[in-house]
Every structure is written in C-alpha cells, then in structure tokens.
Amino acid sequence: MVTQQPGLSLRKCPRLEAGSPEVIIYTDGGCRPNPGPGGWAAILWASGMELELGGGAPDTTNNRMEMTAALAGLNALTGPTKVTVVTDSEYVFNGMTNWITKWSGLGFSKKKGTLLNPGLWKALAEASLAHQASWAWTRGHSGVQLNERCDVLASAMIDARHSDPVAPTHEARTARDASLPAIDATETAEIWLPD
Description:
Elements: E1 8-11, E2 22-31, E3 36-46, E4 49-60, H1 62-75, E5 82-87, H2 90-105, H3 118-129, E6 132-137, H4 145-160, E7 170-175, E8 186-187, E9 191-194
Parallel strand pairs: 2-5, 5-6
Antiparallel strand pairs: 1-9, 2-3, 3-4, 4-7, 6-8
C-alpha cells in the first residue's frame, strides 16, 4: 500500500481513447569507457513512419545515456500517445515500472545511499505521464532489428562526442510498415509529483 506523501499527489499515466496515436520507441545508450564519452539513440516507429534520433556527451555514463535515449524519444512525441518504450537497460525498465514510485515519493532520492541521476529520473517520469506509456525489456545484442540499429547509432554518437546530451544531433526519417507489432509491456509505475 502506498502512503499519501505531504505536498505530493500520486499520478498515473492517462488512459487514451481508442484510435489515439500509437508509437513504439526502441532505445539504447552507452559509453566507451564507462564513464567517458557517451552516445544514445532512439528509433520511433509509428504507423507508416520511422524516425531515428541520436546524440551524445563527452563525459557521461552508460545509465545516463540509456535514460537520455528514452527521454529524447518521449520528448519527440508531439501529443498524447500510446507509447511502448523498448530498452535493453534493466536499470531503465525496472526504474520506470517499479522503483520510480518510491524514489519520487522521497523527492527523487533514496532512504539509503544516493539516487544517481535524480534530474533525469524526474524528467523521464514527467515525460511518461504525458502519455499512456509502457515499458518493455529486450536482451541487447540478441538480433532484435531496431535494438541492433540503436546500438549502431549510439556507437556512432560515441565516436562523434557531442556536447549537449539531450539535443539530437542525428535525425533521419524513413517510410515504415504501417502495422505495429504487439509487444508485451509493463505500464509506467505510479509517480509522486508536487500538487
């Protein structure tokens, strides 16, 4: 049972009507070495269209790049969307489907130890709440086509060593199969935010 936190309200992602736009976002991020120069990539697949985004930072971590990829993908959506974010990061998947409720209730901190990347967690939580957002985990380097493409793009972004971690520096649109596959996903966990 979740206890009411003073000054905070527990929020859920909205339930959108049938016929609302649907998008699948594949993401990946990494560093060489970790920490060090990093890159991220997100591929948004909507009916009939695919959008690739990529960027990086000169001094970051694998986890920050994984989170930034998901955040950039969500931020690229132009209105409320039924969205499934597919990540090979257990940190991002578990964070958004489980741990975020407790962390947000503590002001994006932890009772014991330090919550790393609190600003990114808060931004990711807020971006998720604008959509009917769900999360799916896939094993990396296992032949999932768009996950593999994200890995290639993220590696290219590491090589480019960009300075603004959130602003995309790679963008490409292509035509895509109109039908989206069904993906087994978990809804974004409830999130505590200020009233």
